[in-house]
Amino acid sequence: MTTDVPSVIKTRQVPLSAEQQAWVDKACAAIDETRMRQFNLELTAIHSPTGHERAASEFVTEYMRGIGLQAFYQPLDQHSGNAVGRLSGSGGGAALMLYAPIDTHLSANPEEDVPWVGPKLRPDMLPNAYVDDGGNVIGLGASNPKGMVTALVEAAAALKQAEVPLVGDIIAAFAGGGMPMTPAPGADAQNHGLGSGVTYMINHGVTADFCIISKPWWGVFWEEVGLCWFKVSVRGTMNYAGIPRGTPGFRSSLVPAAKVLLALEEWLPEYTKRNTSGQCAPEGNISAIRAGWPYRPAFPSATTEIYLDIRVNPRSSPAKVRAQFAEAIDAIKAGDPALELDWEMFAAYPGASTSPDNWIIHSSMRGWEFAEGRPHEGPPPVSGQTDASAIRNLGIPTARFGMPFPPANAPPEWDGLGGMGFSYIPDLVKVTKAAIYAAVDTCTRGREELGLT
Which CATH number is 342's domain given? Predict the structure, then answer.
């Protein structure tokens, strides 16, 4: 893996004029935490699992019209769609997209989600949104992604309210299909997830010169991992619980699968070490195991399936990761010739980078420094996959920043990923301020000054 890729860069300082700074200050003064909290609450209360985002996207579309943006709903099918709003400049400047996904990762149905989320669906895993005594919005996706939508919509609202004389356009764009998942077999919404909404959006005319995507972590990123999904099928024969061990002709699939699991778990950290560079430390995890019939425990399964998600550094490719995985499987088989298994890669999504010299990276870092009040610090290498990879691979230079994770003052019983449903509004205000700064910094200048000619 390439090692001469920067993970930390120094912010290139391009001072704002006194007039530009006054516009930033005026727009930031227009930020309304009460308005943000109410919008966050109402959006969180609209259930929007991947492939069923229509109601949430239509709500955001109407809200953007209400704050004075030109907005439209972009359907993908009868269940899924995107929300797009535009704040037009006078002309001659850059178009800046402020983007976040809008779909959530859980069904909020106990029959589907429990016990896989834990013993029960907690309040942060349900779309029954409410505001707690501390003013935090609680509910499925309240912080990620709907807090991110909230922060960027508020940035557009504040820029409009402050009457900032934009030269370029602000495009507030929010898409479905952003979660790293695919629909369950037999679901009525097919082919959604893995960036399907934003890919459709950009391929159908909603584009920009630059993009800022908001996803968790309070730092500026210029690259994202991709992912590869693998299925390993360990083979045996169907057995019967009453037959003595050692009976000729019977081979368990589950016990050998346990050996494969342990071998893969030993290999995955080595994979991460070999493939880490720049801002990305691509992890891999064993995420699911399937075998047999839970209602027929007398008949052990002839096949045990192991599912893995392995992240892809942007300086690699799904094909190269596939080759590394093939080597790992060959080594496991060589260590135990009695193993019978086969495998496949059934989904792949490449990572992507934007040059760390690009205008939008440094403008975002200047925005971060404005909101935080101190020099930007390089965030640690990460392994989270977002729609930023799709946006970059479709040709739009993209910076990413979002609220701190975990959020400030989150209760300890909600530690971990959960329903990503604890939204601390002061954290979101930082994101809004950084986005406002970058928007004024970028969209009140001519294209030549931004390096676009």
Answer: 3.30.70.360
Confidence grade of residue 3 (pLDDT, cut at 50, 70, 90): low
Say yes or no to pLDDT of 414 above 90: no
17/165 Cα distance (integer angstroms): 14
**Cβ atoms of residues 195 and 202 within 8 Å:** no
**Whether 57 and 154 share a structural domain:** yes
72 falls within a domain:
yes
Residue 238 main-chain phi, psi, to 5 deg: -65, 135
Q: 238 with 360, same domain?
A: no
The pTM score is 0.95
For residue 421, the enclosing domain spans 18-224+351-450
Cα 315-387-44 angle, rounded to 5 deg: 150
**Tokens 């839970």 label which residue?**
294
Domains in the chain, number? 2
Residue 1 counted as domain residue = no
**251-308 tens-digit pLDDT:** 999 999 999 999 999 999 999 999 999 999 999 999 999 999 999 999 999 999 999 9
276 phi and psi angles, rounded to 5 deg: -80, 130
Please report, to the nearest 10 degrees, the dihedral formed by the alpha carbons of residues 401, 277, 379, 407 taken in order.
Answer: 70
Convert the pLDDT of each residue in 28-51 to its tens digit. Answer: 999 999 999 999 999 999 999 999
Give the N- to C-terminal CA distance of the chain in Å, as an integer: 34
Helix axis angle for 18-29 and 425-443, nearest 10°, is 150
**54 in Cβ contact with 80 (< 8 Å):** yes
Query: 33-70 burial, b if ≥16 CB within 10 A, otherwise e?
Result: eebbbebbbbbbbbbbbbbbbbebbebbbebbeebebe
- Asked if 22 and 138 sit in the same domain, the reply is yes
